[in-house]
Design goal:
Structural class: alpha/beta
Radius of gyration: 25 Å
Shape: globular
Strand order of the largest sheet: 3-2-1-4-5-7-6-8-9
Number of domains: 3
Number of helices: 18
Mean pLDDT: 85
Number of strands: 9
Low-confidence stretches: 225-238, 243-254, 485-490
CATH topology of the largest domain: Rossmann fold
Length: 518
């Protein structure tokens, strides 16, 4: 229905000098899609108020509404091009009046979870890069063809938007920061299996892929009944917060959702944080298109929060995340963590452990070198994980899972509150080299999801008793006893990073000794 409109928008953006990458295409499409969505939301609210006999107070003042500046309509319902701005007039209105006006909403908002706050945040962080007012006019006309009113329309738009995000993710290293392959996310969600009444958190949410897939999983109870896993050691009775009187399936879901359940999913289930401006905008738009009207996404650097300040009320039932790997954090940020390291992903893992409720469950993607690095921070973090959580499953992903990232990853599945006794490993082998033309798919992960329920042994899966793990190194390396698996070599970059970490520790020890010697 809308596929051609999306293609036409990209064709115009390709001609625009200010937009040179897939990231630009997604960014510029996103702010326009958001304003079109906001127009539909206001129309629906106004209609609802009219039916109830009350007056509706618009969010936007009349000159800044879509119907006024972007797509004023004639009596025939079509855009009146005699009234619609175009050329330099349109560009100047957007840059000098519209964006400053929308950014001002951040100061007026009553809280960060309101639609007003998100308007202000989005339009304070991104800029209009479409410098030709004629190109902008053409794009607006295509955007105006899109509709967000029915669930069918939103469903199609969400798939098309996901396609744009995927192309951005495949475009190169920077794009990959925002995109985790959806088949991998779906497998993680099925194993962790969040249910209605539980809260779901991603502190490095990127394009909100984990939150969107968790929403789809939870709003379709029973869809994965044959696949969903009852987590080891976690009771699955009537989920806290779910509507009373519902029959509960073996996976903890209800056969159909009540109005109360849908309201819980919409407003009190999904929470995310994102540091980067573009990713924040994409996350908001992605969740809106999936059906969450006011996403609980904060634009902030998660790692600036001191772990000592986190209280019980701040914690979550489920954490699903793929934190950025390879980044480096400043010393003042490292001070917020008991295990200090410059490796961003290791700081995030500490944050996630702290943010889980007792009995809470997590699925977290991390570089495979985390399992074996010998620097003090890595060893201490593995020990913290094993002693404070039940690390019950490690999924070893093949090279090429993440396009353009150049690193191998594993997925850690753990529950907080009891120490690890044994770890079930699964070595994913799709039987082909993964790449842009041969990406990971759902069938590749079906065997993992099925075997994980019982943690059965196979040529690709085995169990390690924690008693057999060195207490000194806490080495969790993937070592398939069946043999024939992929030989894992650290990349030169990983080796250099480990050498640098060890050198840094040696320098700190020498500095301490010099201090003692006076």
């Amino acid at each position: 229905m809308f596929e051609q409109a999306f293609k036409n928008i990209d064709d115009v953006l390709w001609k625009e000098a200010g937009c040179t990458t897939e990231l630009d295409y997604v960014e510029q499409s996103s702010w326009l899609l958001f304003l079109k969505y906001l127009d539909g939301l206001e129309q629906d609210r106004a209609m609802e108020a009219d039916l109830e006999g009350r007056k509706y107070a618009h969010i936007l003042d009349a000159p800044y509404r879509w119907e006024s500046w972007a797509a004023p309509k004639g009596r025939d319902g079509r855009v009146d091009h005699n009234k619609a701005l175009t050329g330099d007039d349109l560009r100047d209105f957007v840059d000098r009046r519209l964006f400053p006006y929308l950014h001002g909403f951040k100061q007026k908002a009553t809280g960060p979870n309101t639609i007003e706050y998100k308007i202000g945040e989005i339009f304070g962080e991104i800029k209009n890069k479409i410098q030709s007012g004629y190109n902008l006019r053409e794009i607006i006309d295509h955007i105006d063809e899109l509709h967000f009113r029915s669930q069918k329309e939103k469903h199609e738009l969400s798939h098309l938007y996901e396609g744009k995000i995927q192309r951005m993710g495949n475009a190169g290293r920077n794009g990959g920061e925002y995109y985790t392959p959806r088949p991998l996310i779906r497998a993680i969600v099925r194993v962790v299996n969040p249910v209605i009444g539980e809260t779901v958190y991603d502190g490095a949410c990127g394009s909100a892929g984990f939150l969107c897939e968790a929403f789809d999983h939870m709003k379709n109870p029973g869809r994965d009944e044959g696949e969903a896993n009852q987590e080891i050691g976690v009771p699955r009775k009537n989920p806290k917060g779910a509507s009373p009187g519902h029959a509960v399936l073996p996976n903890g879901s209800s056969p159909r959702l009540s109005t109360k359940d849908l309201e819980i999913l919409q407003t009190r289930t999904f929470y995310g944080k994102e540091k980067k401006s573009l990713a924040y905008v994409i996350a908001i738009m992605n969740m809106i298109l999936h059906g969450i009207d006011a996403p609980n996404i904060l634009h902030t650097n998660t790692l600036t929060e001191n772990l000592a300040d986190i209280q019980a009320k701040d914690r979550f039932d489920v954490i699903l995340a793929n934190p950025p790997f390879g980044g480096k954090e400043r010393k003042e940020v490292q001070q917020n963590f008991p295990i200090r390291t410059g490796e961003t992903a290791f700081l995030f893992l500490q944050h996630f452990i702290k943010m889980l409720k007792a009995g809470g469950r997590a699925g977290v993607v991390i570089k495979n070198t985390f399992l074996s690095n010998t620097d003090n921070a890595s060893v201490s973090l593995r020990r913290l994980l094993l002693e404070n959580c039940n690390l019950h499953t490690v999924l070893d992903c093949p090279g090429g899972t993440f396009q353009g990232a150049g690193v191998k990853t594993v997925v850690l599945f753990f529950e907080k509150g009891a120490p690890t006794r044994n770890i079930w490993y699964y070595q994913l082998d799709p039987g082909r080299n993964l790449g842009k033309t041969n990406p990971l798919n759902d069938d590749d992960l079906a065997d993992f999801v099925a075997l994980q329920k019982s943690r059965a042994h196979s040529p690709k899966s085995w169990t390690v008793d924690v008693k057999d793990i060195s207490t000194a190194s806490c080495d969790l390396s993937v070592k398939n006893p069946s043999g024939g698996g992929e030989i894992l070599h650290q990349s030169p970059q990983d080796i250099l990073e480990e050498i640098a970490a060890l050198d840094n520790e040696s320098a700190q020890v020498l500095e301490t000794i010099r201090g003692l010697l006076g």
